[in-house]
Design brief:
Blueprint lengths: L4 E4 L10 H9 L2 E4 L3 E5 L2 H5 L10 E4 L2 H13 L9 E4 L2 H6 L10 E4 L4 H9 L6 E6 L5 H8 L4 E11 L12 E4 L2 H10 L9 E5 L1 H9 L6 E3 L7 H11 L1
Parallel strand pairs: 1-2, 1-9, 4-5, 4-7, 5-6, 7-8, 9-10, 10-11
Antiparallel strand pairs: 3-8
């Protein structure tokens, strides 16, 4: 079956440049975007139940822009003034630059890795005396705390936000040739919104091994998986698939 319509379970890319837009134009595809999951911040009252004293921490490990937002949000709600001496360890350069939204970037001690927690370990180990705070979601990947523990880093996991399923009821009678997922949470949202979902001829694509495993575990058919040796990106894998069909 030829692929003509695609639903990507993420927000629409900002700006006019995106590989998805190029793909749509090149193959005359209808590509829609929709977040299947969203983030809800926990309030100060619930945060207090974790018995975490923000003032005891001398450094923060930030794994996403969302973590940045919620660290400063909860600090404000707890009436905690983040000291100028606070050190920030960011998982990527993009997250580090995002800190400019809240702090004077050039006047702070900010470090960053390439893209994963493993990339950041060498920098973290040079600051072993710090007491790290790890702001995170309730669905934090196990490899992050496991990596910190295996390197004997003193850290506190602080759940500041939850990943929850979005309301997709308006899509009940809308059909696409392909559904594209980037996280296990997207699969959970699909099945929560549509418990009687039948895949039939719908192509399901996944990016990353955890997303692929979630599809298989929920007895769905995994038709397309990225990254691949000949297509490291999701859009590249989709293009190869579309050309084959």
């Amino acid at each position: 079956m030829a692929i003509k319509t695609i639903l990507v379970s993420q927000p629409k890319p900002e700006g006019k440049k995106s590989p998805y837009f190029d793909l749509a134009e090149k193959y005359e595809l209808k590509i829609d975007f929709r977040s299947f999951i969203h983030v809800d911040g926990i309030d100060a009252q619930e945060f207090r139940t974790q018995k975490i004293d923000l003032a005891e921490h001398t450094a923060v490990i930030l794994t996403s822009k969302t973590a940045v937002d919620h660290f400063f949000r909860i600090s404000q709600e707890m009436r905690f003034t983040v000291p100028d001496s606070m050190k920030y360890f960011c998982i990527s350069e993009a997250v580090a630059y995002y800190l400019q939204k809240y702090v004077a970037y050039r006047k702070r001690k900010i470090f960053f890795g390439k893209q994963t927690i493993v990339d950041l370990v060498d920098v973290l180990k040079k600051h072993k005396k710090e007491n790290f705070l790890l702001p995170c979601t309730d669905r934090l990947r196990d490899n992050i705390p496991a990596t910190l523990e295996s390197n004997d880093l003193n850290f506190t996991k602080a759940v500041l936000y939850r990943t929850v399923a979005s309301d997709l009821s308006d899509l009940e009678n809308v059909y696409y040739d392909m559904l594209v997922f980037y996280s296990p949470g997207g699969i959970e949202s699909l099945l929560k919104n549509f418990p009687d979902f039948r895949q039939n001829d719908t192509v399901i694509a996944a990016f990353g091994p955890t997303t692929a495993n979630a599809i298989v575990k929920n007895n769905l058919r995994l038709d397309l998986h990225a990254p691949q040796p000949n297509a490291p990106s999701m859009t590249g894998a989709i293009e190869n698939f579309v050309k084959e069909k």
